[in-house]
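Here is the promised in-class demo. Please do not try to memorize the tokens; focus on the logic of going from shape to residues.
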């Protein structure tokens, strides 16, 4: 897996980590972009740690608290992005990656792995839970 980030991807990641993004413009696609940029330069475990830290930090910075954060959802989507990165030929940027994998923009695909009841549970918000419907494929580097 030799994917790259563009300068724009790296700048967006830097702004995200510094809480300088427009929170109203931070939606599913932007979550995927941050996950992709983190995975380009980090192991999945390190990428998850960074992603978790900065999402929680952003929520606190915005004063909305962490009630919207979902540990399972965050980890599951990181696994999904990593899986697609492993299955996709080298991309030079996130836009190229997402053009090759537009299915990732469909937020409902997570429900092929997790039941809605599980993913929306308080337990899933607080800790990483395994998929209850279909395991997300894991590749080397993921425990």
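The designed amino acids, position by position:
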């Amino acid at each position: 897996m030799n994917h790259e980030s563009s300068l724009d991807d790296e700048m967006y990641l830097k702004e995200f980590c510094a809480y300088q993004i427009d929170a109203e413009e931070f939606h599913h696609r932007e979550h995927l972009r941050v996950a992709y940029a983190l995975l380009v330069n980090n192991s999945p475990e390190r990428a998850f740690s960074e992603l978790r830290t900065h999402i929680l930090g952003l929520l606190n910075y915005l004063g909305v608290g962490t009630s919207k954060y979902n540990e399972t959802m965050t980890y599951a989507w990181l696994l999904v992005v990593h899986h697609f990165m492993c299955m996709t030929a080298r991309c030079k940027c996130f836009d190229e990656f997402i053009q090759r994998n537009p299915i990732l923009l469909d937020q409902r695909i997570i429900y092929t792995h997790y039941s809605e009841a599980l993913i929306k549970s308080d337990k899933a918000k607080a800790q990483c839970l395994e998929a209850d419907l279909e395991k997300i494929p894991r590749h080397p580097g993921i425990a």
